[in-house]
Write a structure and sequence with these properties.
globular; 10 strands; HGLS; alpha+beta; eight-stranded mixed β-sheet; oxidoreductase; EC 1.13.11.93; 2-oxoadipate dioxygenase/decarboxylase
Length: about 270
């Protein structure tokens, strides 16, 4: 049973996300000009490590406090990730939450050692203060550490720099009044000068898998490292169009092959 307000959770995640994703606010303004005053969020995504107090299992337990339960699981062998998505038990309009974790044991000893240092710091802080979203439960890393992680895993580098925050929010194309398809959304965004993720094509998925997705490339922001600021990619905005399954209900899950390419929206410039 839900004991905490999931709307307050999403408000905190949204405000944190907007602070480092100026494209999202700009895109909202463009959609408002077309008559979409309220943008419905399909889902958000969080990244984490597969060990300690911040692993997927513990984040899932945290989300249960807000009325969420696991509804699907996904494997990403190339990127060495495991993921689940969570849906709200009683509020059908509540955004889904996609949580992925890095499989540390599949990486080099150097990456494991560094990331386990962050996890140890997180464990200590969470024992003291509890798990909070959004948060980065460890201190700032150096730019040099970020660059070393980037050589082996973009996901690990992003997570070490940014922590437990919404990696992206997602516009529900089905709920837009000013646009009728993901293709129209993409063309509109390109016409307005936004950069789209073209890995695997601008549109990932199709009607056969009941889900089409696209996304901007993450904004480049001056991020505060231990030692000074440096421009890196932060967060991005996704767009999802869902289609009915054979039973007539809209598909509510995710497609691993498409999500694999969406992850690349934060790839280094």
């Amino acid at each position: 049973m839900s004991t905490q307000n999931h709307n307050a959770l999403f408000e905190a995640l949204w405000n944190d996300y907007l602070a480092i994703t100026p494209d999202a606010d700009a895109i909202h303004e463009e959609f408002k000009a077309l008559g979409d005053d309220i943008i419905i969020n399909d889902h958000i995504a969080l990244r984490t490590f597969n060990e300690g107090a911040i692993n997927l299992e513990n984040i899932g337990s945290h989300l249960e406090q807000f009325g969420y339960k696991a509804a699907g699981e996904y494997h990403f062998e190339e990127k060495k990730l495991y993921a689940k998505h969570f849906q709200h038990e009683s509020d059908e309009d509540a955004p889904k939450i996609f949580v992925s974790e890095l499989l540390l044991e599949e990486f080099s000893a150097e990456l494991q050692m560094f990331c386990r240092g962050l996890i140890a710091e997180a464990n200590w802080n969470i024992r003291k203060d509890g798990l909070t979203l959004p948060s980065r439960p460890w201190g700032k890393i150096t730019r040099e550490a970020y660059e070393r992680l980037l050589e082996e895993s973009e996901y690990a580098a992003w997570l070490a720099a940014f922590g437990l925050r919404a990696n992206h929010f997602t516009v529900s194309v089905n709920k837009l009044r000013g646009m009728e398809s993901l293709e129209a959304v993409n063309q509109f965004l390109k016409d307005k000068g936004f950069e789209l993720n073209t890995s695997g094509g601008e549109i990932k998925g199709n009607e056969n898998v009941c889900l089409k997705q696209s996304s901007t490339m993450a904004n480049i922001v001056d991020w505060e490292f231990n030692g000074g600021k440096h421009p890196i990619r932060s967060c991005f905005y996704e767009f999802a169009e869902r289609f009915p399954m054979e039973n007539g209900e809209l598909y509510q899950g995710f497609v691993a092959a498409s999500a694999d390419k969406i992850f690349e929206s934060t790839n280094a410039a």
